[in-house]
């Protein structure tokens, strides 16, 4: 491939000068930034549909609806839809979530128009063919049977049941075999009509295309989309933290390794504690070879191949998880070691050295995260979703630099309590 | 903006590939050693992967934990992978911080420690890694199929090694494996990113020239004999889902047939991304096996796996059986598709489609400097860098006739192992 025809451009951090942001008349927000270094592009977006709208007895409906969008449209059947995409080496897929459904595509930049047309078709005229629905449902049921055998997924599911007890977030987006069984094709049609629309939709296009051209291309295929019957997103309730530790275990006979997921609730993305918690979590279970947890459980004790912590902060109550895969004989010992590290973490401030190293990590990794088209597209969607502003990347170093060890301690104490942890274990 | 790739060799035999890319202030540095499970002897399976783990335990100059901290604080990433033919270590760092990579790789090429206590702690970590794999039915099935597919060649065993061997390997074993294969003449240093090639070469010489040249004495690897008839393996385990894996003996990546097999792979199961570092890719819903098996609800998924290797390895087809069918039904349907392929000539249109797909996959992988550096060294592990540069051109020259010949040579039942995984009866 001859890249010399593409003009030289060096990626600085995206900012107001080079991100185009346009709101179309029907509410769709289009974000675009060009990158002519490779003749390819990434298209990503989301809209407000998801499992939050699923009735309990049909949990998995939103998931199945999104998965069925490309199985047939007004203009294409399943095979002709995928023939268009695969013949040009492109990819397009829809991923259902709890509050939003996302889509993601990549292709050569010469195929932008076609990809947008296929996205638009899938969103605006899905026909949900009965035959494809039946097949998809069986595939999903097999997926759930495989999930039931997966120690990582089952531990994670149990963990959500503990921290999100009686909260909508305890429900897995893919549902359960008995709820998926009850879903019929008409349910998909109704779900689609009530929850798919342009309001609150965001699309980011990044790659070898001029931003103005990208915006026009989106307007052309989606600018006149309307849905006046959209159900508003329900209010997401808050959630009470545990008062004491709670444990759930699941036996999956015949397995060799057990997985542990333990931790607590976390705040939402827009919490003022955000930067302190991100840096704190990195120290606890991410930095280098999985932070303090990796040092203790893997390096010193040799107990686990993976042990790390992870912080998920979005809309509504988030989660702070510590995760380990270990031999079943070492379950109690590992839980005790992780609890011990959590205790130390909320009892004493992180060291000055840890703080500096981790700030440096967050600042240094920006060019790496923003190197590929898909990395930039994901970041642009996040800016929009949480109203962070187009100058966020330029302002970001200030926020990171301002975090102190005391702030990390104080913020962590609000959420992590070594005597009130949710502990989930799935294994043989 | 993308300069020519520069190739050179140091007096001690270290091969160097440099590619300047000035699109982002990033440098990705990879060092590749021609050692993997291919170089292992019975009783010591998994030793190459274990040496890779020990390379993170520090040296006298850079004690354990030091590098982890130095690299992580730059915001960069570092990791390593061991496979059949190779072991590789990479960093992708902000350009201003990239010097540490050269210092570190030169140091741990000769100075790694194999402390007995560290080896013991790592033993349980690696067994834990293996047990995590054992939780997955496709690992258990894949291991059994691989073992049945080879009688003599070390490709017989999974890279992670047999559990019994992992219990027995000693610090002394690890050290001698390391000393034997971690040599400049057995390594390729590939760097892509925001640097000046001449200056970079100077730095490389400064760090690596001092490492003496030594001879690599590898045990002779016995080439595999033909399979002489279809083999079957049957694994049972937990769960309610059955799986089928069909593995055909495949040519080495440098063989002419390999390229035609990539076309067959595209037709049958959708194009495999040969980039093991994951870049882009497309779905496979229009592939022949997807249409014949998944659309007709005999299986619920279908994936092909073709890998570029130094010696002939395997082309695998992995299928998850539909709950209302048996593994035998899946095999029958695959057989029918293979027969159809052998009986109906492949058209130029289908080959052109495979070429367009390959072009797109390469465009995605050049979006990112880490991926470009990956290709720079990876191809040397089974062929040469021109394999990558000429890939699309060579693909364009594949004729329908050659595709049919390759199909007849490789996709015969006599050339395959069929594996079934079925739920254990409770």
Identify the notable features of this structure and list them briefly.
heterodimer; A: alpha+beta; Cytochrome Bc1 Complex, Chain A, domain 1; 2 domains; six-stranded mixed β-sheet; globular; disordered N terminus; B: alpha+beta; 16 helices; 11 strands
How would you describe this structure to a colleague?
The complex is a heterodimer of chains A (428) and B (426). Helix content of chain A is 43%, strand content 18%. Chain A has helices at 61-68, 78-87, 112-124, 130-147, 151-163, 177-181, 185-195, 211-222, 274-285, 287-300, 331-347, 352-364, 366-369, 373-385, 392-402, 405-415; strands at 20-23, 29-34, 40-47, 91-95, 101-108, 202-207, 246-251, 258-266, 304-312, 318-326, 422-427. In chain A, the strands form 2 sheets. In chain A, strands 1-2-6-3-5-4 form a 6-stranded mixed sheet, sandwiched between helices. Chain A has a 5-stranded mixed sheet with strand order 7-11-8-10-9, with helices on both faces. In chain A, strand 1 (20-23) and strand 2 form a beta hairpin. In chain A, helix 1 (61-68) crosses helix 7 and helix 9 crosses helix 16. The longest helix of chain A is centred in the N-terminal third of the chain and has 18 residues, at 130-147. Chain A is globular, with a radius of gyration of 23 Å. The relative contact order of chain A is 0.16. The model of chain A is unreliable at 1-9 (pLDDT under 50). Chain B has 426 residues and is of the alpha+beta class. Chain B has 2 domains: 6-208, Cytochrome Bc1 Complex, Chain A, domain 1 (2-Layer Sandwich), CATH 3.30.830; 231-423, Metalloenzyme, LuxS/M16 peptidase-like (Cytochrome Bc1 Complex, Chain A, domain 1, 2-Layer Sandwich). Helix content of chain B is 41%, strand content 18%. Chain B has helices spanning 47-54, 66-72, 99-110, 116-134, 137-149, 163-168, 171-181, 197-208, 256-269, 288-294, 327-343, 348-365, 369-378, 385-389, 391-396, 400-410, and strands spanning 6-9, 15-20, 26-33, 77-82, 87-94, 187-193, 231-237, 243-249, 299-306, 314-321, 416-423. In chain B, strands 1-2-6-3-5-4 form a 6-stranded mixed sheet, with helices on both faces. Chain B has a 5-stranded mixed sheet with strand order 7-11-8-10-9, sandwiched between helices. Chain B is globular and about 60 Å long. The mean pLDDT of chain B is 93. The chains are: A alpha+beta (428), B alpha+beta (426). Chains A and B meet through helix 2, strand 5, helix 4, helix 10 and strand 9 of A and helix 2, helix 4 and helix 12 of B.
């Amino acid at each position: 491939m001859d890249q010399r025809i593409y003009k030289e451009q060096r990626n600085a951090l995206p900012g107001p000068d080079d991100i185009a942001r346009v709101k179309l008349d029907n509410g769709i927000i289009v974000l675009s930034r060009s990158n002519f270094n490779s003749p390819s592009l990434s298209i990503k977006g989301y809209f407000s549909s998801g499992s939050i709208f699923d009735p309990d007895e049909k949990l998995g409906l939103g998931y199945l609806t999104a998965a069925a969008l490309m199985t047939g449209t007004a203009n294409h059947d399943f095979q002709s839809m995928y023939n268009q995409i695969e013949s040009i080496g492109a990819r397009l897929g829809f991923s259902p979530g709890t509050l939003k459904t996302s889509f993601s595509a990549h292709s050569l930049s010469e195929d932008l128009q076609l990809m947008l047309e296929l996205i638009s078709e899938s969103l605006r005229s899905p026909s949900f063919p009965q035959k494809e629905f039946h097949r998809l449902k069986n595939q999903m049921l097999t997926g759930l049977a495989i999930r039931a055998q997966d120690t990582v997924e089952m531990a994670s599911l149990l963990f959500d049941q503990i921290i999100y007890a009686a909260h909508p977030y305890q429900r897995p987006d893919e549902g359960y075999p008995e709820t998926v069984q009850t879903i019929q094709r008409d349910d998909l049609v109704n779900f689609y009509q009530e929850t798919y629309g342009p309001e609150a939709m965001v699309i980011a296009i990044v790659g070898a295309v001029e931003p103005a051209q990208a915006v026009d291309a989106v307007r052309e295929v989606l600018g006149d989309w309307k849905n006046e019957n959209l159900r508003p997103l329900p209010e997401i309730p808050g959630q009470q933290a545990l008062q004491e530790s709670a444990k759930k275990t699941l036996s999956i006979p015949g397995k060799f390794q057990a997985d542990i997921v333990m931790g607590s609730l976390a705040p939402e993305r827009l919490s003022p504690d955000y930067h302190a918690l991100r840096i704190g979590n990195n120290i606890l279970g991410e930095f280098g070879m999985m932070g303090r947890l990796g040092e203790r459980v893997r390096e010193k004790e040799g107990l686990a191949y993976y042990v790390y912590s992870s912080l998920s902060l979005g809309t509504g109550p988030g989660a702070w998880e510590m995760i380990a895969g270990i031999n079943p004989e070492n379950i109690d010992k590992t839980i005790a070691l992780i609890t011990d590290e959590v205790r130390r973490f909320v009892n004493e401030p992180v060291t000055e050295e840890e703080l500096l190293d981790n700030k440096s990590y967050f600042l240094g990794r920006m060019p790496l995260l923003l190197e590929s088209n898909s990395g930039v597209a994901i970041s642009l969607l996040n800016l929009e979703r949480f109203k962070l502003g187009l100058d966020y990347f330029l302002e970001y170093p200030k926020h990171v630099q301002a975090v102190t060890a005391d702030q990390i301690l104080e913020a962590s104490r609000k959420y992590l309590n070594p005597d009130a942890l949710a502990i989930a274990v799935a294994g043989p | 903006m993308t300069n020519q790739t520069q190739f050179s060799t140091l007096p001690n035999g270290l091969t160097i590939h440099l590619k300047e890319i000035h699109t982002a202030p990033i440098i990705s540095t990879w060092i590749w050693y021609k050692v993997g499970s291919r170089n292992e002897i019975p009783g010591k399976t998994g030793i190459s992967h274990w040496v890779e783990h020990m390379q993170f335990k520090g040296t006298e100059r850079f004690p354990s934990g030091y590098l982890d901290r130095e690299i992580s604080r730059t915001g960069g990433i570092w990791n390593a992978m061991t496979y059949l033919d190779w072991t590789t270590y990479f960093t992708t760092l902000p350009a201003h911080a990239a010097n540490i990579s050269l210092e570190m790789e030169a140091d741990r090429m000769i100075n790694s420690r194999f402390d007995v206590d560290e080896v013991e702690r790592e033993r349980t970590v690696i067994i834990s890694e293996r047990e995590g794999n054992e939780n997955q039915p496709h690992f258990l099935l894949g291991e059994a199929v691989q073992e049945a597919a080879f009688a003599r060649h070390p490709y017989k065993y999974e890279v992670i090694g047999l559990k019994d061997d992992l219990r027995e390997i000693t610090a002394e074993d690890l050290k001698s494996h390391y000393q034997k294969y971690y040599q400049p003449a057995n390594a390729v240093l590939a760097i892509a990113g925001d640097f000046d090639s001449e200056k970079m070469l100077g730095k490389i010489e400064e760090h690596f020239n001092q490492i003496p040249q030594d001879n690599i004495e590898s045990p002779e690897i016995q080439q595999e004999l033909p399979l002489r008839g279809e083999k079957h393996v049957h694994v049972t385990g937990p769960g309610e889902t059955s799986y089928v894996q069909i593995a055909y003996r495949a040519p080495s990546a440098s063989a002419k047939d390999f390229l035609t097999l990539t076309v067959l792979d595209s037709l049958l199961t959708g194009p495999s991304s040969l980039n093991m570092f994951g870049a882009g890719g497309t779905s496979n819903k229009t592939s022949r096996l997807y249409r014949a098996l998944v659309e007709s609800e005999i299986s619920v998924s279908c994936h092909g796996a073709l890998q570029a290797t130094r010696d002939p390895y395997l082309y695998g087809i992995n299928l998850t059986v539909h709950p209302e069918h048996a593994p035998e039904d899946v095999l029958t349907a695959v057989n029918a598709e293979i027969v159809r392929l052998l009986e109906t000539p492949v058209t130029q249109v289908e080959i052109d489609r495979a070429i367009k797909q390959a072009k797109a996959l390469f465009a995605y992988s050049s979006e990112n400097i880490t991926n470009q550096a990956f290709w720079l060294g990876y191809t040397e592990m089974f062929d040469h860098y021109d394999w990558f540069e000429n890939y699309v051109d060579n693909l364009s020259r594949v004729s329908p006739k050659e595709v049919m010949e390759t199909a007849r040579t490789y996709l015969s039942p006599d050339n395959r192992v069929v594996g079934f995984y079925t739920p254990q009866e409770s």
